[in-house]
Backbone:
């Protein structure tokens, strides 16, 4: 599954970068995220409870940042296990471009799924992933704006 896009965020790049690296901001913006903990400057653990179509699923896994070029870009890689729900792993290249007082966040992501999650079908999983991404970017834009207002 592939996802690619851009989001315009009405906050300066440095603030957007700080928010993208703040576990509390991310926990509040990632749909279904119940915990996200920083283990090191580049390693995190996360727990999610999401609904894929009609089926509620729980996942816990690790996230690693690489190719970090603050405050411009990084590569995010993650792998999670969802018990009987299956597994998911993915990678996203994230780039921030300053545009005046705003920031353009560009992403290019890919994911692989297995187990019961894969049995749901790529259309259903893809549709759910797109809805979750839209919710994340909406909430993240609001969180970055709130951080900029402080």
Residues:
């Amino acid at each position: 599954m592939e996802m690619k896009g851009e989001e315009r965020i009405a906050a300066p790049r440095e603030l957007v970068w700080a928010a993208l690296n703040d576990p509390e901001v991310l926990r509040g913006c990632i749909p279904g995220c119940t915990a996200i903990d920083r283990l090191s400057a580049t390693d995190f653990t996360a727990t999610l409870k999401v609904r894929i179509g009609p089926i509620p699923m729980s996942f816990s896994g690790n996230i690693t940042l690489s190719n970090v070029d603050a405050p411009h870009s990084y590569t995010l890689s993650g792998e999670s296990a969802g018990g009987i729900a299956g597994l998911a792993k993915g990678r996203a290249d994230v780039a921030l471009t300053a545009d005046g007082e705003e920031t353009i966040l560009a992403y290019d992501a890919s994911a692989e799924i297995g187990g019961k999650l894969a049995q749901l079908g790529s259309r259903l999983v893809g549709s759910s992933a797109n809805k979750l991404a839209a919710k994340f970017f909406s909430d993240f834009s609001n969180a970055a704006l709130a951080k900029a207002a402080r």
